[in-house]
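User: I'm putting together notes for a lab meeting next week and I want to include a structural view of one of the chains we've been expressing. I don't have a solved structure, so I'd like a prediction I can at least talk through. The sequence is below, exactly as it appears in our construct file.
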Amino acid sequence: MKHDEPGPDPVDTRLGVRLAALRAERGWSLGELAERSGVSKSTLSRAERAEISPTASLLNRLCGVYGRTMSQLLSEVEAEPALLIRGADQTVWEDRASGFVRRSVSPPHAGLRGELVEGRLAAGADIAYDRPPVPGLEQHIWVLEGALDVTAQDAEHHLGTGDCLRLRVWGPTRFRCAGPDPVRYVLAVVLP
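Assistant: Thanks for the context. Below is the predicted structure for the 192-residue chain, given as structure tokens.
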């Protein structure tokens, strides 16, 4: 394959293998997973075969079914976790459909309950999660540049540069960048 020809993203390939393994560990068919997650069998199959790059919303639904945070799932497709994570070694994942870029700055590690994620949303990006991957998940959202609208517990919060929103997530959440500029923020996640 030539370098300029698109091929499956290596992270998507490893992610697909891990998703298939999680389903197999539970002895579920694609149909059973589709019922539990609300995602079509076709989409699940294509994600497991890395024919599509899964969206943040899809991964969130699967994390909920498997009882993991998104960072935990993504860390499972990487090498052994290290104490020092160099910037060049941090996993970056992109949901091209929504304009969301996620950098795992401090990925989950055995014995630690917290992790740090850098999020970037393009102007106009709007991501809705129908449920938290882990009920009661603690989140601290600190805006580094731009503005971010976060909806949680039926309340909308407008965060500007330097603002921090702290909450426990029990239900649906929504992250929106109204623009005109993109937003960059830090998400600190702490397991209950």
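A couple of points you could mention at the meeting. Residues 19 and 191 are 21 Å apart (CA to CA). The two ends are 45 Å apart (CA to CA).

User: Perfect, that's what I needed.
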